[in-house]
Every structure is written in C-alpha cells, then in structure tokens.
C-alpha cells in the first residue's frame, strides 16, 4: 500500500520533521490516535539507525548519574516485546528482534573491578544481572579469549536490527495513511508566536497544527526556530563494522558480548542471519562522518582480543553515523515554550532502545498537550534559560561508554 497524497500546501494535524526511527514511530503512533500526519525527510528510514547496532541494553548501558534516564530505558525495554510483535503484525516484516541476552566481560583486573562496581550499581538500582567467573563466561561463549577474568550475564538485555526496524516503520506509516514529503525542511513557519509547519527547500509551504522536530543531530539546525527554543543537540560520531559468519553460522556467539579493552569499549552483536556487528567508537568530532583507518583498526584490535576468531571472518561493511547528543545525554520529548512546536530528539546512544516509549509519549503529548508521568523529567523545558556553560557535553564518571 502506498502513502496517501495531498496537495503540497494542505495542512496536517501533525507534521514530523525527520524520518528516522524516532520521527517514524512518532508519526505511526500519532496516526494511530486518529490524527492526520505528514513526515518531511528526503530519505525516510535513514539516519543514525542505519549505523546503530540495536542493543536493547537498559541494564548494561547503566551509567553513574543517569538513574533518571534508567527508568525510561527500563520502561521502554519492558514495552519492546509487545511493540515489536505489533509492528511485525502490522507490516509482515521480520525485525530481527532477539531475546538472546547480553554478556559483559572483563579482560584484566582493572576492568574486572569496574564491572564489579557496575554490578553493585545494577543491584542497588533493582536490576537483574548475574556475576560469572571467567570460566563460566567461556562456558556460555566458547569463542571468548582465554584471558577473560569475569563477566555479567544479563538475560533481560535484548537486541533488534535497527535497519529492519526503520524499514518496517516506514511501511507501518504508509499503511496508517501518513503522508511522506521526500524533501528537506528548510525553515520553521512561525505565525503570531505559534509554529505552523515548515517551508521546504523548494519553497513549498506545509501547514500543520502541531510540528514535531525529530531530525536527530540535525534538530538544532532548522532555520526559523527561535534561539531560546532551538534544541541543544550535538552530533556524536560512531564507527561500526559489519562482518559475516560463514554458514552454518554456528558456533560463534549466541548473544551480544561487550567489554572494555585497554580502556576502550567494544561490543559484538550477532544476528541470526550470520551478520556480526562490531562497534562502536564515540567521537566528538562535529559533523564528520569519515570512516577512518584508525577507527577500523581499533575496533578490530579490541574485538580480536575479546574473540580471537573474529579476524578469520569476512569484513563486509564499514560505516559511520551521528547520534544526537544532548547536554545530559537524555532525550527531549514533548511541548516546547513555542506553541505548536514539540521535540523528539537528543536520544544519544539510546534511540533504538527508546523507540517504543518515545512513540507512546509523543502520541500522548500530541493528543493531550501534556507529557505522561514517565516522561516528565525529559521535557525540553528543562533547558529553558540555561547558559552555554550548562549546555556543554556532560563530564560525569561513566562505568561504560558503549552506544547502542
């Protein structure tokens, strides 16, 4: 089924700027509430999801100082099985959703101590994880290096294929009647202190009662948005490798494996189709999306120390993308101080994980004008009146820095 078309200047109830997974899930859920919805994006289904590994790691992604975000992550993870089943049913697409669990391991005594601290923090936060010896880790995953000193088994941290997720959301939107304008939004239209839609690069005006800015790391660059409302998002570069495990695919890895190697973070995400995703660097380099020899080398070097057999696998793809980082590494969801303008951006390393809850939160906000309780800490208004110093990237102590 194809998307419904309307005259270019026709007004929608909701106009979503950005067709990545966050914009798409917002559009799909809003359409499901009976709203007429349009999406503006030159290539719907693209964006950071094309580079993400798809770890749904609410537990192993826990960071010091981010316990508030933890609540939203855990709630979204709880909703994921039903969300994935509903999306698969609506589209007939296989999303690559796997409840295979995650194993976080340590390769030296320092890393083991950090992992122990993370385990204590997880338990204090009410999260389920099991400490394993190095031998127990290798029993679960025989391809692990002999030097593994211990690890955390987290059966509740699952995975999904973000590329399949994005493709399915495009189809779900089309079937729900969402209109796609495959163009670039150039400027927000503001009439009498209210957002009224956008102007496209070719001058076409698209009207809307409500506009949602969900353009990922580009969300802070839309012209026409008042300075005191412009979201403080920044691009955070990540490089990822894709390898192929030759048929019959087994045995290699049965679950996601992640570790700190010499202070660098690496994860390996095995897909059922034999693909193995290795990532990810986290680099504050502005808008650069170059795949570098150094980035590829470091990922392969660290992955080889973790799983020596990886160097025998064909390297099938290298890519780099930009995550939308916010000052506190948490998303900005819901109404802004400019009437008619909502935000759904700043998800940083948790965009894929937060997809189900973001869709629900935004649909609620767009139909009621208010945020549900679980999203109240993530209002864009929390940055109102902030100074440039307070909007700088956070420098909190992290146990791990592994973007999903």
Task: Detail the topology: elements first, then pairings.
Layout lengths: L11 E6 L3 H12 L4 E4 L14 E2 L10 H25 L10 E5 L2 H16 L5 E4 H7 L9 E5 L3 E2 L2 H14 L3 E3 L3 E6 L4 E6 L4 E9 L20 E11 L11 E6 L2 E7 L4 E5 L13 H14 L8 E11 L6 E4 L5 E5 L9 H14 L36
Parallel strand pairs: 1-2, 1-11, 2-8, 4-13, 11-18
Antiparallel strand pairs: 3-7, 4-6, 5-6, 9-10, 10-11, 12-15, 12-16, 13-14, 14-15, 17-18
Q: Any overview of this molecule?
A:
This protein has a domain at 99-157 and 235-325: D-Amino Acid Oxidase, subunit A, domain 2 (D-Amino Acid Oxidase, Chain A, domain 2), CATH 3.30.9. Helix content is 25%, strand content 25%. It has 7 helices and 18 strands. The strands form 3 sheets. Strands 1, 2, 8, 9, 10, 11, 17 and 18 form an 8-stranded mixed sheet that branches. Helix 2 (67-91) packs across helix 5 (162-175). The longest helix has 25 residues, at 67-91. The two termini are 32 Å apart. The model is unreliable at 1-8 and 395-404 (pLDDT under 50).
